[in-house]
Amino acid sequence: AIAGAGAAVSYYARWKERELASAQLESQLSEARLQSLKAQLHPHFLFNSLHAIASLVRTGDNATAVTTIASLSDLLRRVLDADARPEVTLAEEAAFIEHYFDIQRVRFGDRLTASIDLEPGTESRMVPTLVLQPLVENAFRHGLADRIDGARVVLRAALDADGRLRLAVENDGQGLPADWTLESADGVGLRMTAARLQQRYGRDHAFAVAPRPGGGTIATI
Fold first, then answer.
1. Is-contact 123 90, C-beta < 8 A?
2. Which of 8, 27, 107, 149 has the fewest C-beta atoms under 10 angstroms from its C-beta?
């Protein structure tokens, strides 16, 4: 009986060790998947920013192009720094978006009104690094497409009644086609955002892109 009990304790200890090692391996694999998904967004974001700068150079606005390159350099420094952290505070993420807004304001001029509205108490909440940039980029793409009049892009953050963080990026553009779905989106940003959120939070999150009341589109996390 004593020998059997000792063997059972020994087997249980080894089983717990294997279970812990398996959990650690799964965690490392999950983080590697997240890093891979996030890395796929970098070339996409860089390409669009360089396109804005190229447009300025082609029109001869070299001074503004230089200023925009400086803003892009600051953004890239933030991206490289963010690679070491899977999550940042919403205040840090919003600061990144504000720099991105600066580049787009140069590109679109008076055609664009861009703003950030963070409800008090949301700034210190943790969010996935660069999770908002694809949503903002999509808002610019659809909110300003083929428009010669002004357009508006807004980032909002608030707390629900149960204390959960709600993020929304909205534009007042032409809106989505009637048959549009997230799975059929022609850009990589939205699909990668959905994959990142699913990988990190599983069922403990919601992500939707839908028509905005009054016209336009709203993306909500």
1. yes
2. 149
For 103-144, write each residue's pLDDT tens digit.
778 777 777 788 999 999 999 999 998 889 888 888 877 666
Cα–Cα separations (whole angstroms), residue 187 to 74, 86, 134, 151, 191 = 25, 23, 9, 21, 7
Instruction: State the residue for tokens 């939205």.
Output: 190
Look at residues 102, 95, 98, 42 and name the one whose alpha carbon lies nearest to residue 70.
102
Could you report the per-residue pLDDT of 76-106, keeping only the tens digit for each?
A: 777 666 556 788 999 999 998 988 888 778 7
How far apart are alpha carbons 209 and 221 in whole angstroms? Answer: 9
Residue 140: CB atoms within 10 A of its CB come to 22
Helices (H) and strands (E) in the chain, counts: 5, 7
Query: How far is Cα of residue 13 from the mean position of the Cα atoms in its chain?
Result: 42
Could you give the CA distance from residue 41 to residue 148 in angstroms, rounded to a whole number? 29
Contact assessment for residue 190 and residue 151, using Cβ atoms and an 8 Å cutoff = no
